[in-house]
Task: structure prediction
Amino acid sequence: MEKIEIKDMYKYLNQEIDTYLLVTKKELKEGKNDRYIRLNFADKTGNISGNIWNNALSMMDGYGEHDVVKVRAAVNSFKEQTQLNIKKIRKAEPNEYEMSDFIQTTKKEVNVMIDELFVFINSINDEFIKKLLLSIFDDKETLLKFSGCPAAKNWHHNYVGGLLEHTLSVVKICDFASKEYPVNRDILVAGAIVHDFGKIFEYTAPPILDFTDSGRLIGHLILGDEFITKKANEINLFPPNTLMKLRHLIASHHGEMEKGAVKIPQTIEAIVLHFADNLDAQTMGVHQLIEAANDPNARWTEYDKLNNRYIYLG
Amino acid sequence: MEKIEIKDMYKYLNQEIDTYLLVTKKELKEGKNDRYIRLNFADKTGNISGNIWNNALSMMDGYGEHDVVKVRAAVNSFKEQTQLNIKKIRKAEPNEYEMSDFIQTTKKEVNVMIDELFVFINSINDEFIKKLLLSIFDDKETLLKFSGCPAAKNWHHNYVGGLLEHTLSVVKICDFASKEYPVNRDILVAGAIVHDFGKIFEYTAPPILDFTDSGRLIGHLILGDEFITKKANEINLFPPNTLMKLRHLIASHHGEMEKGAVKIPQTIEAIVLHFADNLDAQTMGVHQLIEAANDPNARWTEYDKLNNRYIYLG
Amino acid sequence: MEKIEIKDMYKYLNQEIDTYLLVTKKELKEGKNDRYIRLNFADKTGNISGNIWNNALSMMDGYGEHDVVKVRAAVNSFKEQTQLNIKKIRKAEPNEYEMSDFIQTTKKEVNVMIDELFVFINSINDEFIKKLLLSIFDDKETLLKFSGCPAAKNWHHNYVGGLLEHTLSVVKICDFASKEYPVNRDILVAGAIVHDFGKIFEYTAPPILDFTDSGRLIGHLILGDEFITKKANEINLFPPNTLMKLRHLIASHHGEMEKGAVKIPQTIEAIVLHFADNLDAQTMGVHQLIEAANDPNARWTEYDKLNNRYIYLG
Amino acid sequence: MEKIEIKDMYKYLNQEIDTYLLVTKKELKEGKNDRYIRLNFADKTGNISGNIWNNALSMMDGYGEHDVVKVRAAVNSFKEQTQLNIKKIRKAEPNEYEMSDFIQTTKKEVNVMIDELFVFINSINDEFIKKLLLSIFDDKETLLKFSGCPAAKNWHHNYVGGLLEHTLSVVKICDFASKEYPVNRDILVAGAIVHDFGKIFEYTAPPILDFTDSGRLIGHLILGDEFITKKANEINLFPPNTLMKLRHLIASHHGEMEKGAVKIPQTIEAIVLHFADNLDAQTMGVHQLIEAANDPNARWTEYDKLNNRYIYLG
Amino acid sequence: MEKIEIKDMYKYLNQEIDTYLLVTKKELKEGKNDRYIRLNFADKTGNISGNIWNNALSMMDGYGEHDVVKVRAAVNSFKEQTQLNIKKIRKAEPNEYEMSDFIQTTKKEVNVMIDELFVFINSINDEFIKKLLLSIFDDKETLLKFSGCPAAKNWHHNYVGGLLEHTLSVVKICDFASKEYPVNRDILVAGAIVHDFGKIFEYTAPPILDFTDSGRLIGHLILGDEFITKKANEINLFPPNTLMKLRHLIASHHGEMEKGAVKIPQTIEAIVLHFADNLDAQTMGVHQLIEAANDPNARWTEYDKLNNRYIYLG
Amino acid sequence: MEKIEIKDMYKYLNQEIDTYLLVTKKELKEGKNDRYIRLNFADKTGNISGNIWNNALSMMDGYGEHDVVKVRAAVNSFKEQTQLNIKKIRKAEPNEYEMSDFIQTTKKEVNVMIDELFVFINSINDEFIKKLLLSIFDDKETLLKFSGCPAAKNWHHNYVGGLLEHTLSVVKICDFASKEYPVNRDILVAGAIVHDFGKIFEYTAPPILDFTDSGRLIGHLILGDEFITKKANEINLFPPNTLMKLRHLIASHHGEMEKGAVKIPQTIEAIVLHFADNLDAQTMGVHQLIEAANDPNARWTEYDKLNNRYIYLG
Result:
């Protein structure tokens, strides 16, 4: 059986389909006459919701959030959304699907990127800073979380591995800038490496891409700061001034308070990091828009609502 | 000898005065022909700067930052500022002055305020939260720092004890609100107590009121969050959800990102705390403006540049 | 027969239902081939529109705006809206329905609130101010309008009695604040009582909640100011300075010009009133969001578009 | 004796001058050792302050606010301001000065402008509106106040007669626009005539140009609305819809809430009035800047701080 | 056969219609199972899209963009849009339709407006400026483009002839203003004539109203400036200062940078032009809203999303 | 004789000095009793103004704008400014001074930078683009203007050679980015080379750094666009699409309309260029602040008013 991608489901409006989907949320709800099940699904092309209106209680078991399921469903339109009216559902067997069909992932090689990251870590001269970074990334579990994390939910790098990919790009720009401007390269490169580290606490683990509660309530700036500070404090005699500067880079990398910075950049390294972060995030955001415009004849992308523009492809 | 208050010094323009001043900064600078000493002074009525142009090297010793000094100086005007040209300077003897003439201090009784604070702490039902607060405020040194700290540098409560005074007022408003609205009183009152706690790290210790380096680079939101989180983690089984909510109250109490909030309020307690904080800060800011208008015939205060208005006294 | 609540009608998509509804608008329109009737309905759970496409002229009579009607209708979806295609309609008999099912109303006791309001009025020491307030609220018709008025159309307290409920809460906060801050309590409490009074002219009378024309074109600030000024001018020797201060509280209570204030707050009472108003409005707005999240398992409310956030329930 | 204009006084720095000045404020203040008198002066070229440091009590009598005085004074510089240190002061005799040297006045003929205004009033077809306008402007005292009032304190038309001059220009633009666009000319022209009428309550009477207390606390929008509404209510059967539209024109003529509009324009007449008002105010503001650049060789005006620009004269 | 206007098509939901439409875009797309044709249509009442799902390849020929076609189609609703499912399509014969039914056009006489424009051109005293304008508008092809161009895509004057109509209105206001204010009338009137000239490069030629690529990427300010500058440079000895001022009027007529001005107005003529432009654009925008409210009983227009308001019709 | 640098002149307050200065402006003004000469001076450390109060007419000759003069002057303070009261003035002989003392100049080697620029030009593959750039920079006079031009008046790179230095840095960042992102390197690098080219028309020629009239009224975006377009149009068959993209890079490189962009970036190259431009400008701006903090003990720079911050040096 063919899998139908979520982005194409609108083409089956008012038809019945059989396909595979990843369950991202499952709730039993009180309906007017009866209970029903509300489900959220995802695959690597998008999200869709669905309902089981009849015999909800008897259809609650055998599958759950994080499972890939096989469903038979009618495709409906409700409010402005395509929606599934689910008739049958069961957990899929591992051999029925490829997990990679359900998770959007970086197109780059994760291992190669990790190697590159370590080359940068090892290029740092300040022994304390290097020790701090190694104490973080030498931990297998942390590295796994880091390299599996997205860099955003909606805009640029919003896929598994996106955080690693984005981090590495920002590091490269900062490394380049450190040759052009009179900055402290060790502080700048280390700051680039950890600037978004808190995102491993801000997003849920794959395969489901969403905010954690503490991600929404506290955010990656504070959560990253907390972790880095704890790690530095575990290192004997870690210089307080160095730690303060690194923390400032995390606190200020969004550049302006209305963009979420706790402090505006107040060191030259913080300035460079902020603009390097912006350069990569915006360029890749636009690149993703361009890639999504898969019609070879199109002269403009779809409308970019966030920035009120189309991107020219001609 | 009479002390001349800094706010009155402009009246001695082009005259020579003898008076007492608190040294808040002392620097040896390279002048054109020779070195000179640049000094910043304060008393409880304001700040002024001065220079020692001649024989700087021989006049560097015997006094320093944090000392009260006796000076003979000519009052000059440079650029838009009144400034002192210092002829003589020496450290004052303890019996020559009252320290309270050099430090602006809350007009309320510090001990009474501390007692009131503890009444609120003890009114909390949640044992973990109460334990957390006691672990913080039972520490003598912390309590001393807290009760000696200002709540701001320029605007409301910018004096020794201001942080305690402001905190207590916000707590009272939140306590009142907890009777009017369906909130978790324990979380709300505790959040009010610690919302500005990080200011003990953001400001220098009395008698000098200024920002610390980490205050400027990292700020009281993160520094307060760090301390509270550390203290909670020292308590066995402290509920993570409770801690997350408290941290959210600290992170969001400025209300809007452009006003410095890391996150906008996302719990009902965070909403109440933000507006309680604003109510006290703005009301007391205006109250200080009104008090400064000491002319009984004045119908309006001086211009409030921060808010583009005069306050009506009539 | 069971009444189907408007908020549940989407569940009957493409079905035919029989139910009761309040008519809030009735218009005869020119269609392409024929005339049709366009109707707006409400009940205490929301609003919905409907059309009578056939035999419009013969179905125009016997019911009108402000009536509760019994309808038979097909539930359709047009553009992003659920909509009724009406087959039958007639005015309902008084014994068929409870008016309270069609009007969203404060959950508090109106009489108790009125009593509380009078306690505050009578607590005012300034005889002129007290006389002014009594001259307003002793009028039965005015009191009826006031206590039946909502405080907003969409956000907080958007139900019958909401204005009274909101006013009383703001008064209580101001009363509390008058013990904490050096304010003129009489001016402040009176200002709180009348700050939104103009809303009785800004909104239509129940059961229909909408803006009046003068509400949209002139607004409750000016309309309230006009009424209070007229009432004060009817009192012999009412002190002009007192009246000016009360008018300033009305004119400035929105706090900032971009939020609709005619003047920014320029007295300490105006500052307190503004933040008290905000505290109650925002807290109750969030409280209504939380109440609307009636799923006991939900960890977050629905998205709050006005403020770009979810509210945490966990 | 020659009068020295205030704008030229900086040329007499550290010299002693004899000249005539209008007293706009006189206060007896508590100095350090003694009382002193603080005075504000004006002439048609600007404002300056001065002090009487010695023998203040003996120099308090014989002159007051609104008087022209003869002074002998030393010209000093304090902070960034030129200031007078007054040695002698006495009320000037009527034959010593021309009042017109102390008050900045429109360059147009007031009587001609009044005649033009009446031509517009009489051109209105709607009998109620015409009656309303005549009931206002036929009152000699009101007309005198109106024609002696400035239209602003700092920016455009900030001189005696400025309100009449500005009003007439806006009326002319609206009259012109009424031929180009499908508007209700009577409403539009009447709205233009009264749009800033409240300024007669917002500014003090000549010769002193300042805000009144109610001007600052309530503002010309509400004060004007109050007056017009009262006058309309005195006319038997004045149509409520007409009054509502006129009031909307007053309430909305600033165009945007952050510019002080109570309501944004919601009728086509309100749109036209707003832009006509802006066109005249901005053009005349720039014209005054250009006139102030009295150097025939200058290619650019002084910096226009309000709008961050120079105006090109070349 | 009757033509069904696009604005009425929603009334035929789920029915099949025969009608005429202008093709504005035609694309062959890759569908899931097969290719399909996506079409955009327009008439003078609006836009609609449609698809040919079956036998796409065989239905590609015989018609194209800019053609009027006859279609048979089912009217569907997809997402929030009415959409056509096309069954038959063929190019319409010239005698089947009036082109004017497909293009929204100014209601004024184009020839009369052109004559008026030339009267203004000939009223200019400066020989260089007059020569410049004649060199532009005496060119038949340019004049044709100019008089066929809209002044906007969505808001005011968004129809064929709109640019000419808007230009002429702005010229008239400027001409009027030149009698009221001390401006250089030649510069002002000429600036008004050419201020939006670049729109002939910014919009596609009728019958299709859309942006050109260079309109989106470079914009009418620069494109207009380029053309006018080129034309002036072709005139022997054209005074550089005159050209600079004209170019400034084009560069600054949007008034504020966030509204798209390259420079803010820095001459009095630029100020007048900016507000004249605004006056006409906003008034006509509102006028179009009012005209669109074709229900004679309506007291308010539809919601004006751009400005967050309804317009009062009562 | 020693030259006294302008930044040190405040140290000579109320003294008389002899020194050399560059005249940047000379005006004969009407004083109260007599004419006087107003002069503006510069050297590489700043600007100062001065007046010749006596015998102005006899001291007008023998020197002018762009000349270095020898002056004897008293150093005064007027308003918040240090100012010179000039007693003697004469044109300096060439052998009395080094021109380089009067002009702030890039610290990098101009010839080396030019060579680097040409390497980038020659690295471009697209023959048309390369031809365009060579046609511009092969012109000796243009190259001289370009390499002598500042990149700003107040903020970053505000010195002779600053434009070349800034351009080269932006080119390098773009060249680096072209390896990291899927961009058209030829378009991007060429756009970087010409993005600020119009500044050669926006600033006056050395030694005086100021805006030209057309710089203020039209600006470097349009002036640069005009020049590049003219040059491209001189090349036979220059591809219009390539030119349009280059023009878009110039028009959009400020990124946001409120920062002066005519269009927001709508190609991926425009995004990269904007952030590269920002990265260099902000980093160098901060670097200049840091350099200006020449006290080796300072922990913070002077206040950066433009961005409301100090920069940390510790």
About this structure: The longest helix of chain E spans residues 268-292. The mean pLDDT of chain E is 91. Chain E has ten helices and five strands.
